[in-house]
Amino acid sequence: MQNLTRRNFLKASGLGAALWGVGGMRSFAAEARRKVIVIGGGWGGATAAKYIRLTDPSIEVTLLEPNKEFISCPFSNLVLAGVESLKNLTLNYNGLRKHGVKIRHEAAAAIEPDKRRVRVGKDSLEYDRLIVSPGVDLQWEQIEGLAAAKDTVLHAWKAGPQTVQLAKQIQSMADGGVIVMTVPPVAYRCPPGPYERASMIAWYLKTKKPKSKLIVFDANKDIVSKTGLFKAVFKDYAANIDYRPAQKAEKIDIGAKEVTTDTGDKVKYDVVNVIPPQRAGAIAVEADLVGGDKRWCEVDHVTYESVKQKNIHVIGDATIGLPVPKSGNVANAMGKICATAVVSLLNGKEPPVLAPGNTCYSWVNDKEAIAVVNAYKIENGKVVQIEQKLTPSKSVAVAQNSLAWRASIWNDMLG
């Protein structure tokens, strides 16, 4: 499936002709400067900020992102197995500045929908349209004992210092040790992510600490993504991985170094990796952008405008209701489509109907990976999946393709 590049994006959206004249000059008459604020500089937010500026440079775009560097969650599981370094997954925001995006490395304190403004520190920033790409927050309280231990029990589900710390814990564990890992119930960020992580850790144990064991407690009834492919991989690591579906982590006791599940199983660990249940980032919850579940944000499938708050769009992992995974590629696609919609709406035009796409790679050892590609269409105003294609098995070629893909999509977001 072809990625939605800048050229293909403008062509598909119809905005190339509508917004750009000869030599890239805009064809619109001068008007009052419109303002868009983007909250969150991840896969969705960074893309949206860049593509609004690319599509209509007359629109002022301010990106609010507290982190001064972008660290990719995709590929961070490789760091745990010593196959990749966090440095190679870290990029800066200089490319966005070159496109005229104003960046404030601060967190949004509050959204005031009725006044169309965002509070940042002592400032109140006004907007014509707001794009919220807040990612996910972890629900510590869902597992007994976790909230009090969240600084020592690592999740490493947001790539960064914890990724490096967990890698060090795994590498320093004595051969014969036990690692316990938990998988949260759906929906959560990156459906295949926990299984990729399990595969990479199991590969590391098989090659470096063959007497050790990884026990995976999965709150779901089965592997939720690339099921057949991951089951085949787990068979390869049968001596080092013990996968236990339909077992939800209910309690962690750091003193006893023990995890208890909802089935009553108690397992001792030497290293523990608890991935908690998740919800949309706090700013979305506090602004009442979430639905009845109080976890995720429902949006219009064409414009990504919130169904609860006008002039506010939500993209990325915080959304729900679309038949798409919470993946980096989907967030990137949402960013482009939302940018198109916002530019169209600010210019009094009907937003074009564009469907997202998804390509997702999962590494399973130091040289091989598996992948899935999902194609979608818009039908009666809703995103509908057309087809899904999986690689037949793990391969070196798929792993190499993933490296070219990541370089391309990172440049698309931040270059």
The CATH homology group name of the largest domain: FAD/NAD(P)-binding domain
- Total count of domains: 2
Measured distance between first and last alpha carbons: 22 Å
Q: Overall mean pLDDT score?
A: 93
Apparent shape: globular
Structural class: alpha/beta
Number of strands: 24
**Helix count, DSSP H or I runs of 4 or more residues:** 12
Give the percentage of residues in beta strands: 25-35%
Task: Kindly state the percentage of residues in helix.
Answer: 25-40%
Describe this structure in words.
With 415 residues, this protein is of the alpha/beta class. It has two domains: 6-137 and 279-352, FAD/NAD(P)-binding domain; 140-276, FAD/NAD(P)-binding domain, CATH 3.50.50. 29% of the residues lie in helices and 26% in strands. It has twelve helices and 24 strands. It has helices spanning 6-13, 15-19, 43-55, 77-80, 94-98, 146-149, 161-172, 193-208, 227-236, 282-286, 328-346, 396-414, and strands at 35-39, 60-64, 69-71, 90-92, 102-104, 110-112, 117-120, 123-126, 129-132, 136-138, 178-183, 213-218, 241-244, 249-253, 258-261, 266-268, 271-274, 278-280, 297-298, 312-314, 319-320, 357-363, 369-379, 382-390. The strands form eight sheets. The chain has a five-stranded parallel sheet, covered by helices on one side. Strands 13-12-11-17 form a four-stranded parallel sheet, with helices on one face. Strand 1, helix 3 and strand 2 form a beta-alpha-beta unit. Helix 3 runs parallel beside helix 11. The chain is globular, with a radius of gyration of 22 Å. The model is unreliable at 13-30 (pLDDT under 50).
